[in-house]
Structures are given as structure tokens and as C-alpha cells.
């Protein structure tokens, strides 16, 4: 496991340089006492491992910006990819407060030659909600302007790059507007926002947090996270403790039928991330969310093997994790 005695640890993502796994994670001091306060104190930490089990913490990757920056409040979840020229790009969420005190989220990036020293793009942010396909503060009663958790991946046919973003549609029920926003880029620097690759639904979710798409054993699957309180009543009735969700698909490019989502963990775990170990087997890691007394824990699990049971992705034999 990856735990910090003095800090809450929650959302995270990986980069694999071929020799080591690099873990980028959100953390904030436990001196805050109330774990809910961690979101507005988040920095992006960094650790390395050769086996996904034993981790060595190294220097932090990023901290929040100045008072006028798009990430003035906090740096939140993202993803890390390597361009063909060897440059690493760390995409992340920049958070700051809007005029009405609600949180506004936009996407920026930093670059590195070695995964250790990062330089923010001076032109950040590179993407934000447009008010056409994606909800903004002036058109919602939702608690924030959701446009975060960028997941970036290479086009399967070699035609540039894709980004999926946690966002909300401009129509639908309050707890059913969550969609997977979509953007494309030829070079990881210039981005074009496109319509979502999912639709809002009365059998859906208010937010599809921390998306990831992969081909697991030859089958495309979308992962996202959402707590029951932010889901529609139809979802809560079927899965009252679902937290990390999987949606099978025909392609990593979607479209994704969010009403077909099935939980792969209860709410004791959150933000599931898929990664292949050195044997080529797919593993899921997640952060420890709700403890036996109902309080927040923090810290990241050891790898949990995953596989398919029919059309359902399942996690094998782990306390508190669903099996088929």
C-alpha cells in the first residue's frame, strides 16, 4: 500500500517509463483534521515503484499557482503521457473560486524531460467548459463548474490524441447530467473541444469522476467514479453503495452507454485505476475511502487483479470489493 502518516492521500494516476511506475497523487496535511478540507489544500505528489506495491516517495510534481492563475486554489487530478519526441505531459485540473464562491475547474498541463522536474505551460488553461455542450456556473444549481480529471490517450489509429474530461451536460436532471467530455489534439498542445461521448440520463450520474479508458484482455472498458449521493435515484436503488463503475464498450473512442454502468467496488474504495503489471496482467488500484466507522481513510491499495465475467468487469477476491 501507499500511505502517508502525515497526509491524506486520495486521487491518483500512473505513468510507466518501462523501468519504473510513477505514481502521481493528491495529498494534503492531516493537520486539517476535517478530511473534507483536503480538496482546497491539494498538491500533486510523486512516488516510484518497480512492482506497484513498494513505493519510494520523491519530490512533489506540482503545487497550486498564484492568486491570478487558473490553479490558484488547488491542483487536482489528471493523467500523464509521453509524446513521440520524448516529452512527458502531465495534464491536470486547475481549481479556483468563481465570483459566487463556487469552484471553477479548467484543464492545463506541465511538461518534463524526466518525469521529475515539471514546468507549467504559461498559456494554461488549455480547455474549459463551453456553455454549449458543457454546463457552466451561470446555468446550473450544481455545486461547481465541473470540468476536471483529464484522461489523455493516443488515438488507436495514430491520428493524434484524445482527452476525456469529467463534465456535465447543459440539460437533464440535476443528478443525471454527468457526461464524458471529449477533446482532440494533433500535438498535445492545441486542443479542440467536441461533443461528449456519453449522454445525460435519468438512470445516470451527476458526475463521472476520474475517467479512464482501456482495452482489458481485448475488450474496451470505461472506468469512472461516483458516490451514491451524486447518482440518480434509479442508480441508488439498484446499487446503494456503488462507487467505482465500469462500462463495457465497442471501442475506447465510445460512445459509452452510462446506463449500463456496473459497480466494481463499494464505497470503501474510490477512484479505481487500471494498469498492467510487468507480467502483462491487468490490475486495479484505488484509494481507501470509507472506513468501518464511516470516516475517510486515505491511502492507496495494493494491486487487485481484474478480469471479465461475461460482459462485466470484476475485481478478484478482496475485502470490500464486489465479485461477480
Protein model, in words:
This protein is mainly β and 324 residues long. It has one helix at 233-238, and strands at 7-16, 21-29, 43-49, 56-62, 74-82, 88-97, 103-112, 119-120, 144-145, 147-154, 161-168, 178-185, 192-194, 209-216, 219-225, 242-249, 262-266, 269-276, 282-288, 304-309, 312-315. Strands 5, 6, 7, 8 and 9 form a 5-stranded mixed beta sheet that branches.
Q: In terms of structural class, how would the helical and strand content be classed?
A: mainly beta
Percentage beta strand: over 45%
Q: List how many beta strands DSSP finds.
A: 21
Rg from Cα: 18 Å
Helix residue percentage: under 10%
Residue runs with pLDDT of under 50 for 5 or more positions = 318-324
Distance between the termini: 25 Å
Chain-wise SSE layout:
Layout: E1 7-16, E2 21-29, E3 43-49, E4 56-62, E5 74-82, E6 88-97, E7 103-112, E8 119-120, E9 144-145, E10 147-154, E11 161-168, E12 178-185, E13 192-194, E14 209-216, E15 219-225, H1 233-238, E16 242-249, E17 262-266, E18 269-276, E19 282-288, E20 304-309, E21 312-315
Parallel strand pairs: 7-9
Antiparallel strand pairs: 1-2, 2-3, 3-4, 5-6, 6-7, 7-8, 10-11, 11-12, 12-13, 14-15, 15-16, 16-17, 18-19, 19-20, 20-21
